[in-house]
Amino acid sequence: MVRHGMPYFVPEEREAARAALRSRRTKVLLVLLVLVGLAAGVPSAFVSGDASLAPATVMLLLGVAALVYGLTALRARPIATWAVARTLGSLRQLLPLATRALPLLLIFVTFLFINAEVWQVSATLDGGLLWITVMLFALVAAVFLLVRLPEELDGIHDLGRDELVEACRHTPLEGRVEEVVAQTDPAELHALTRVAGFERANLLLVLVIAQAVQVLLLSLLVFGFFLLFGALVMDEVVQEAWIQDSTTGVSWLPHLTVELVQVSVFLAAFSGLYFTVYAVTDESYRDQFFVEVRRELDRAVGVRAVYTAVRRRSP
């Protein structure tokens, strides 16, 4: 289970994660991180004259700490590792899915890219304020995923006898599944496929991380596209006319400026939010993308149900 990204299906791992959430050290650590973030951010904001660096530093530090704590104390590293590997391993299947959203997205975002008002807004997002905006887009996207993706788990409990037999193929339970399924009451089998609490959270995290990897890859693609497109066709005269200020060059590449990087980052973050909404609301996309992941989740739930039934039958 752990190797297949389901650590919370293992009682010991589940209890360790539950204990980590109840630990008083979590609250103490949170307070210390806020204090450290302020201690690092306030002087930086004072020296640079950019007040947004203080909250940006605190938010960044809290985000990194939450990620590290989740991967270690909360035992979520196998979940992230499996979901990322599963998504990257099926890039050939993901490319046709992503191209469903890319044409309309690029047309819409390219229109924004050649809009002077967008340049003026992005150029004023100096330092921490730009990253606060990016993190805000990421937070909204994460909340949207956490609200909508549980719908994908609604049918995961409806596994019949045939589905349970199929789920246990090529597993240590393959030799006993048919016997267990035949001798166990259907109502009991159905009850065993019910998952809740940390186990349901495990399934949800797999979906969220798999979708987040897709969004990140597409956002990086959009960022690279606008960086290259802008560096080739947007000279400094046009950029300065749009932002109504002088530009700052950052490289030997022609026309590559700090302002161009800021606009590209802003539009890439916006594109990530757009793609997140599209991915979980478009029925065709959901059916194609989630069919493979759902098959893996069904398999995990089925193996867990049969294993539990075997344990109950053992003397």
TrEMBL record:
Keywords of the record, alphabetical order, are: Membrane, Transmembrane, Transmembrane helix
Is the keyword Acetylation in the record?
Answer: no
- Give the top-rank taxon of the lineage listed in the UniProt record for this protein: Bacteria
Q: Where are the transmembrane segments?
A: 28-47, 53-74, 94-116, 128-147, 203-229, 260-280
Q: How is this protein named in the record?
A: Integral membrane protein
